[in-house]
Please model this.
Amino acid sequence: MTASDKCVALIKEFEGFRADPYCCPAGFWTVGYGCRFYRDGKPVRASDPAIDECAAADILSGCLTSYEAAVEDALVVDVNQNQFDALVSFTYNCGIRAFCKSTLLKKVNVKPNDPKIRDEFLRWTKVGKVESRGLMRRRQAEAKLYFSRETSSPA
Model:
């Protein structure tokens, strides 16, 4: 599967656009919509030049492939497009390793439509030990998308 336009829009909304490289809360240099690497695999550095939104969208499209593949590889059950999109957004924000070790993934792989999965999204709302309103809003949006009945097609 590939991420749909809904997934890309969700990521863009919560990551926000930054033309200049910046150090994210996790301590990584990122640019555009929170991308740590350019399409050619080079890491973002503080001294890199600013980019425009078109370049940022292109970089995001390129880096999403690794998150899509990680989610696809970790799933042992079939999920619908909205579920996949929510999991890709989550993984993009939390990281592949965190997703692969999460109870969220374990519960999805047991019963993908279990309403308790919503609670698993909402467990990931802290920066360090401090609750983040921004992460709470993002997890609520991801959980809402995960359980949404509206159909979407891949980007």
Observations:
- The chain is about 50% helix and 10% strand.
